[in-house]
Design a protein that fits this description.
Elements (H helix, E strand, L loop, with lengths): L3 E6 L4 H12 L3 E7 L21 E2 L2 H8 L3 E4 L3 H13 L3 E4 L6 H14 L3 E3 L5 H14 L4 E8 L9 H13 L20 E3 L2 E7 L5 E9 L2 E9 L6 H11 L5 E3 L7
Parallel strand pairs: 1-2, 1-4, 2-3, 4-5, 5-6, 6-12, 7-9
Antiparallel strand pairs: 7-10, 8-9, 10-11
Helix pairs in contact: 3-4, 5-6
The protein binds NADP nicotinamide-adenine-dinucleotide phosphate.
The site of NADP nicotinamide-adenine-dinucleotide phosphate has 25 residues, from helix 1.
Length: about 270
C-alpha cells in the first residue's frame, strides 16, 4: 500500500507533538514535512525534544504544499492560522484533518463550499476522543426526553476559545432533536454578568478554565424529580490520537466535507 504523505502544522504544540509521534509510529504514514513558526530550513529531528526525523520544517505553508505535495494536512494550531491552512490546503487539493477548534459557523460554511468546488475531502473534528463523541451521541439521545440541559465544559487555562468546540457541537446536536426552550425562570436576572453562562437556543453553556485540567465535559439534564449526568474526561492528549488516525484513514478516501468525528464512527 502507498504511504500517506502527511504534513503536520503546529508540531511543537501539545497536540502537535502527539500527532508527530502517531505519524512516525504508523507503518503506512510518512511525515513529509512540518509547518512551524520557527526553524525554517531545519529537519524536525534537529529541534530539541523531537525524535530522529528527516522531515523538513517550513514556515511558509504555501511553499510547503508546492514542494512537498502531501496527501493530508493535520492542523493543530490556532483558529486563525488553522483557517488559513485549511483554506490553502483545499486550494491545492490537499485533504485537511483539522483538530484546531474555534472556527465560526461562517468559516465552516466556507470550507464546506470549498470542498464541494475542489472535490476534496476534509474532516474537522472539535474532539478526536472517541469517548467524547459517544458522550455527544448519548446527550442527543437523552435530549429527546429531557428538554432542560446545561453543558459544563472544563479545560486547561491555556485554551484560547470558549466555549469549547465540543460544547458547541453538543449544543448543536441537542438542538437538532430538542424543541427550543428558554430555560430557567422567566424573570431570572444575573447579578454578576455571565453567571448563567452562554446561551445556545435557550440552553446554557459554562466554561471552566483551570491549570491541571485537560479536556472534560459534563452534560446535565433535569426533569421533575430527577437529573441525568453524562460525563467524559480526557486525562492526556494521547486519548485523541486514535481519532486522528481514524480521520486520516477516512479522509484519504473522501471527496466531501465532514464536521465531527461522530459522522465517521458507526
Ligand atoms: P498549543 O500547545 O498552544 O499548540 C498550538 C501550536 O500552534 C503552537 O505550537 C504554536 O506555535 C502553533 N502555531 C501558532 N501559529 C502557527 C503558525 N502560523 N504556523 C505553525 N504553527 C503555529 O495548543 P494545543 O493544546 O496543542 O491545541 C492546538 C489546537 O487543537 C487548539 O485549537 C485546541 O483547542 C485544539 N484541540 C483539539 C482537540 C481535538 O480533539 N480536536 C484536542 C485538544 C486540543 P508557537 O509555540 O510558536 O506559538
Amino acid at each position: 500500500m502507498k504511504n500517506v504523505k502527511i504534513v503536520i502544522a503546529g508540531p511543537r504544540g501539545r497536540m502537535g507533538r502527539e500527532a508527530v509521534q502517531l505519524v512516525l509510529d504508523t507503518e503506512n504514514y510518512e511525515l513529509a514535512a512540518v509547518v512551524d513558526r520557527k526553524h525554517e530550513g531545519k529537519k524536525l529531528g534537529e529541534i530539541d525534544g523531537f525524535p530522529q526525523s528527516e522531515a523538513p520544517v517550513y514556515t511558509d505553508f504555501e511553499k510547503c504544499l508546492q514542494e512537498i505535495e502531501p496527501d493530508v494536512l493535520i492542523d493543530l494550531t490556532t483558529p486563525e492560522v488553522g483557517m488559513f491552512h485549511t483554506r490553502t490546503a483545499l486550494k491545492y487539493k490537499v485533504r485537511p484533518v483539522v483538530g484546531t477548534t474555534g472556527f465560526s459557523k461562517d468559516d465552516l460554511s466556507e470550507l464546506e463550499r470549498m470542498c464541494t468546488e475542489q472535490e476534496t475531502g476534509c474532516i474537522i473534528a472539535p474532539n478526536f476522543a472517541v469517548g467524547a463523541v459517544l458522550m455527544m451521541k448519548f446527550s442527543q439521545m437523552a435530549a429527546r426526553y429531557f428538554r432542560d440541559v446545561e453543558i459544563i465544559e472544563l479545560h486547561h487555562d491555556q485554551k484560547l476559545d470558549a466555549p469549547s468546540g465540543t460544547a458547541v457541537k453538543t449544543a448543536q446536536m441537542i438542538a437538532e432533536v430538542r424543541e427550543t426552550k428558554i430555560q430557567g425562570h422567566k424573570d431570572e436576572k444575573e447579578t454578576i454578568k455571565g453567571a448563567r453562562g452562554a446561551d445556545y437556543d435557550g440552553m446554557h453553556i459554562h466554561s471552566v478554565r483551570l491549570p491541571g485540567l485537560i479536556a472534560h465535559q459534563q452534560v446535565m439534564f433535569g426533569a421533575d424529580g430527577q437529573t441525568l449526568t453524562i460525563r467524559h474526561d480526557s486525562y492526556n492528549r494521547s486519548s485523541f490520537m486514535s481519532g486522528v488516525k481514524l480521520a486520516v484513514d477516512t479522509v484519504v478516501k473522501m471527496d466531501s466535507f465532514v464536521y465531527g468525528l461522530e459522522n465517521i464512527i458507526e
